[in-house]
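Hi there. Long-time user, first ticket. I'm pasting a complex I've been working with (about 450 residues overall). I'd like to know whether the download I got is complete or cut off, because the file seemed smaller than I expected. Thanks.
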Amino acid sequence: MAIDYLPVMLSIDKFPVELEQWIASRFEILNGRRVYIVRDKDLPAAARDIHPYCLQPWLWDVVPADTERILHVDTDMVPLRSLPELPDAEFVAAMDGAAHSARLTAIFPALRQEKLTFNAGFFVANRSLRPAFEQMKQFASSRTSNDPWGGDYLQTIFNFLVQATTKIAWLPHDFNSILLTAEPLQMRTAIAVHFCALPRNTRWVVMNALRTAIGLSKLV
Amino acid sequence: MSDYLPVMLSVDHPYPDIEEWTAERFKRLNGKEVFIVRRDMLPEAALMGHAAYAKAWLWDVVPKATTRFMFIDFDMIPLRALPKIPDAAFVAVPDAQWWIDTMKKMYPLFARTQRYFNSGFFVARRDTQPCFDHLKAFAVGLGCGKGPYSATYEQTPLNHLIQGTFDVHWLPETFNCMSHTHFAEASEAHMLHLAGMPNRSRWALMELFKTLLGTEPIQVRQQHEDSASE
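Hi, the file is complete. Here it is re-exported in full:
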């Protein structure tokens, strides 16, 4: 039986509304689930001054109370194909680029057991992991403009907390194909393409061109 | 005479299938075969400096009967069929406004003309050849050094040479939609230019468009989107 989940998107940082709607509509058409969009106004007061890239810890505070499992998709992630069936695990994520994972696991001993890291733009989390999200709030709140994690905001901390709590069900890169690090051939089979770490304007321009090029059409 | 020869410069393209796709897509959309200039077609002098300067030799390598060519950068994606190109000595598209403003501060000519084109896309008539010959001399003199135009390679000297000699015919930004700037234009773009992107993302993005579009024209999708969002 397919697992149940609520797809959630944090639409923050002045993200163009037409792109947000396109991403959500594409996801819905491909996967048959309406995306729950979280906007600035939906956030609790404690999260209002938090850096926009560090708001994931508050996801459990804003989704409906009866939500047992969330699937988080970044706003700069374009769903291309339908998601295959997801594993029934506490936490499911896609492997990050090999070079990035290797760098992080070399620096941080706590990540060496798995020798893998995930990109936080896409993950599926069970409510049982909420304590890890609560703990992550403290890091988000104390974070200054100087990011000690080399520009990945909370991603490394998120990896620490999840990997210390549960066994991750790893998905292949195709589930979160990062344009910045992917080999061109990976684009042929990508389930979702992620425009993270590109300059914000470039991300939006390219996504807008893609929006008019493929619209809501289903790809095989 | 408003016909033109589309030309792409391809010196050691790392992904030949992407290059071929770009040319095929352009042909499908515009009905014109793209003339691809490869390393072995260029004289040695053209390969001594930065690759961007090789376009100074374009008039030397296109067929002799060519009266006008359209230059298309290797990182441009043809999205829609191009409208008719006006018959003028030089036709180009303004660069991103923030960059024009920078160039206006640096060079008096551009402060006077208020214009500056991006050299990833332009259409040049044969009477511009002396400007290209001048650019060749500049490139050879420059050798492998950076010279006075280090931030823009051949683009600023070409702007100087062309704008100092001809009245440029300006096209809208949809003809050369810059991926770092032109958000509104992107939805109507004829050519998307992946300028300033890291190479790996550039190739991956071109492969993505290749996978998604092939050589098919873009369909009108607004109606589809509207009905889906109801």
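A couple of notes from our side: The radius of gyration of chain B is 18 Å. Confidence is low (pLDDT under 50) at residues 226-230 of chain B.
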